[in-house]
């Protein structure tokens, strides 16, 4: 049974508002509004993520330790990244090393961008004694099938002249031989779990190249080249491992990094928000709560298919706790968001006095949203 309206705390568990506020900032602002409107209410801030960008920040906000690491960015230039560690669990966010935001000057490199830095982060986690690695996929700048990631972990990818392949998906067309090297020994006793909210296979019309290649700057001939490279890589991986996972759901995630994680790291896949809520201790945080507030930049049809607010709403419902949403924009009708389990939903665009305020004054408006929700849902 849910707690009576006058009992319990409030959990504020939003995802980031992309382009405006990080998840921790959203949580802090909504919480400030709630505390102002309902003095004395205990408010617990627990920013969440679905495995993509913001996963590292959510883990750090939940008490994980930040471990800095300088690794290769998507074009090979060094970037300052980090992983999150608590006990023998490490959280690796692909976007930290190989994300679109890491491209120098924002210039895409669809044929040459790689995932080497992701492998370096995994290697750093293993060297620190991690026995469970949570790999968050999302925001990738590369379409290399995870080739760079496994090269960083000791796998050798060689062409017909016995020369190691350079980074990028285009080079995979020349792949002739794979040597797994020290990979198996490196990951002995290490569980790799991929947080992923897409079910695309590696190849074909729903694959990594066709669906996500254009987002990374690929078009026309580039798409053909990348598909050929991934096909060649999948053929060679199947030959050396004896198993073919190219059609597995999620293999196409992050430019095919999901494929390499499944095929060569022995990873399992979990829905991103489900895994992150478990990792962040959401069930414990919501126990005895009177209200949960979640949100993201845009509450729309995609939200209903595995995005963070829908996952939070489902988890809150299991605990018998009401859940409300704050979003930058609200593109769901009231019947739609109510059917998804939300008691209330507020859009910053509806609070804004001027066009653009929902972006430039997002923090201030998130506080107003928190006040309004407290006034409506937390009677004194």
Overview of the structural elements:
The protein has 380 residues and is of the alpha/beta class. The protein has 2 domains: 10-46 and 289-377, 3-Layer(aba) Sandwich (Rossmann fold); 55-273, Alpha-Beta Complex (Glycerate kinase, domain 2). Helix content is 37%, strand content 18%. The protein has 16 helices and 13 strands. The protein has helices at 23-37, 55-61, 94-98, 116-127, 147-152, 183-186, 208-212, 221-241, 253-264, 272-280, 282-286, 308-318, 334-339, 348-351, 357-360, 362-377; strands at 10-12, 43-45, 65-72, 78-86, 89-93, 132-136, 156-158, 177-179, 191-196, 268-271, 291-299, 323-330, 344-347. A 6-stranded mixed beta sheet has the order 3-4-5-6-9-10, sandwiched between helices. It has a 5-stranded parallel beta sheet with strand order 2-1-11-12-13. The chain is elongated and about 75 Å long. It starts with 9 loop residues before the first strand and ends with a helix. One of its GO terms (biological process) is organic acid phosphorylation. Keywords: Kinase, Transferase. This is Glycerate kinase. One of its GO terms (molecular function) is glycerate kinase activity. InterPro entries: Glyc_kinase_flavodox-like_fold (IPR018193), Glycerate_kinase (IPR004381), Glycerate_kinase_RE-like (IPR018197), Glycerate_kinase_sf (IPR036129).
